[in-house]
Amino acid sequence: MVSSRFLSLLFPLLLLIATRQAFAQEDWLAYQSHLCSNNEGNYTTNSTYHRNLNTLLSSLPSNNTGNGYGFYNSSYGQSSDNNQVYAIALCYMVNIDDPGCRNCLNVSRYALIELCPNQKEAMFFNHGCMLRYSNRLIYGTMETTPSLCMSNTQDVPPSTVNEFFQKLRELLVSLRSETAAAGSLRKFAYGNTSGENIQTIYGLTQCTPDLSEQECNDCLIGAVGNLCSNGKIGGRVIRPSCYFLYEVYPYINVSAVKPLPSLPSPPLSSPPISPPPPSTTRNSEGSNRSRNVVIIVVSIVVSLLLIISICICLRVRKTKGKLEILPAEDVDEIGNAESFQMDFGTIRLATDDFSEVNKLGQGGFGSVYKGRLFNGENIAVKRLCMNSGQGDKEFQNEVLLVARLQHRNLVRLLGFCLEGQERLLVYEFVSNASLDRIIFDPIKRAELDWDRRYKIIVGITRGLLYLHEDSRLRIIHRDLKVSNILIDGEMNPKIADFGMARLFVPDQTQANTNRVVGTYGYMAPEYAMHGHFSVKSDVYSFGVLTLEIISGQKISDFQHGENVEDLISYAWKNWVKGTASNLIDPTLRIGSRSEMMRCIHIGLLCVQENAADRPTMASIIVMLNSYSLVLPVPSPPSFVMHSNTEFKTSLGALDSNSDDQSQTNSTKVSVNETSISDLYPR
């Protein structure tokens, strides 16, 4: 089924195609041009500036960003971190009513990101509107460059050239004065002039309404001076802050121009004019062109409205009983997942039918694919396999939790799909994949110098602190590991995969579960053996992860010479001997040794056997930022047995002495760093 979101993206594109086809006989009227400026620098994909830009442009053609008369101005982001984005848009009063202007802007905002994919400043001119964005304040500033000039192909008869351009100059002077003197809602004027031996000339001038009277006047004077259509019966000049054109036939429906509140009718330099006699070939062509536009656009609009209505009806019927997310009292607290639901066909098309070329990786719950939405945004799609072990409860859990989490060190959930047997999670695309792809690669890990590794450790700390204390909901991740840490283009870490996460009420500190899920080596001993978990369980996993980042070796496959032992045991033995520097990755030849040793110390504090002895994430933030703080001496960790058989036997013995001796109270662990779960409620 075609989704309404797909149709909302398709509509402006079809409208642009239809309009361009209707104007095919006069290509200069169907122009579009763009400028990608390098003056303000570039941004990286999925950076803060990129996200702010997408957010701003998606909201631009809305009533709360416009003045109601075809001018839009908005900004998004924080100026303090130099990632604020400013944008303005102007609708040209050329056969463009309010809905048409919005469609023009919809087309422009998608096209501009595609045409200028990394520039912080760009401009787009279309036949009906202008769109600009920048990382600098552009509102209230007159901009004269770049300047676009176009002309009609037909010449003015030689015998009337002087009279024609004399009348044109008089008309443009009159329109310029009227436009400049207009109010702050709209600076626009339209009129015509005629002579004894020439055809009627129609002119239009327009400025962005944020300009002063003098600025508008100066901008139009410069634009007229740049006219390149000498000897032609029509032409136009477009600047970022002003615009003018002239032709020998009417090209605007004056009655469709929205009147200003203080005026009984639109500002005109002369009364509304009637079309020229039908005997004029040029006028006949213009009439035919306008008729074609109306027919094509109306046909498309009616067809799309019909399709949208059918889709909405079908979707309402289909989703009435499709997804029961949470009891009513929990919906207000966590949020409604339906607002994030996406159509399977849209995701399938975005990933090229989940082709192997787009496959990013394989996990315990399924595969991850790269995709690209119609608006040009790159996405990562997690396609859960039917036998993955993650049931509907875990799936809904991840949707509801991640949808409410907003932090620079947490991966952002864009949507989900639950259709038939398909369960898909759509995330922001993080360009450098997961941390394990880098840190455990003998070649790539050399690219991670100490400064970058330290930045990753600090970023993970901040993300966990947000989950544990700073978000509205207290969340225990329960599956923190290197493969669940994604790295963006700026080497910032993002915690991912919340399928195992558990929600705590604000005052709750710990909980129990009969079904242990997670990854071998990262699970805290009290959780792996007894099912007790708390924020300190995540702290334990963080400690393991920190030691892996420093050493560049896996917790489950640590090797030192010919001996094979677990990473935590090796780290503790060397700490006791005073040779903890042996743990440091040999590729880290440059960097602060004191920081490295301090991080090893923090890692050992996190993996202490007694959960109460482990620091909180808030304390770890202080430890990382304050070198004057004396760290406590760590107590011995709970060592993991080397043999998988011994490990299972130990757990079985513990389970046999527990209060609940049922077989369903067994502990599950993964020995290949793949998360596992069960199909029973927890």
UniProtKB/TrEMBL annotation:
One of the GO BP terms on file: response to stress
Topological type in the membrane: Single-pass membrane protein
Gene3D superfamilies: Gnk2 domain, C-X8-C-X2-C motif, Phosphorylase Kinase, domain 1, Transferase(Phosphotransferase) domain 1
Low complexity bias: start-end ranges: 655-667
Transmembrane domains' residue ranges: 293-314
Listed Pro residues bias regions: 265-279
Signal sequence range: 1-24
Any one GO CC term of the record: plasma membrane
Localization of this protein: Membrane
Superkingdom as given in the UniProt entry: Eukaryota
Catalytic activity, as annotated: L-seryl-[protein] + ATP = O-phospho-L-seryl-[protein] + ADP + H(+); L-threonyl-[protein] + ATP = O-phospho-L-threonyl-[protein] + ADP + H(+)
Keyword annotations from UniProtKB, A to Z: ATP-binding, Glycoprotein, Kinase, Membrane, Nucleotide-binding, Phosphoprotein, Receptor, Repeat, Serine/threonine-protein kinase, Signal, Transferase, Transmembrane, Transmembrane helix
InterPro entries: GNK2, GNK2_sf, Kinase-like_dom_sf, Prot_kinase_dom, Protein_kinase_ATP_BS, Ser/Thr_kinase_AS
Molecular function per GO: ATP binding; protein serine/threonine kinase activity
Short name of any one Pfam family annotated for the protein: Stress-antifung
Polar residues compositional bias, start-end: 668-682
Residues of the Protein kinase domain: 354-630
Descriptive protein name: Cysteine-rich receptor-like protein kinase 10
Species whose genome carries this gene: Prunus avium (Cherry)
Lineage, highest ranks first: Eukaryota, Viridiplantae, Streptophyta, Embryophyta, Tracheophyta
Gene, per the UniProt record: LOC110754820
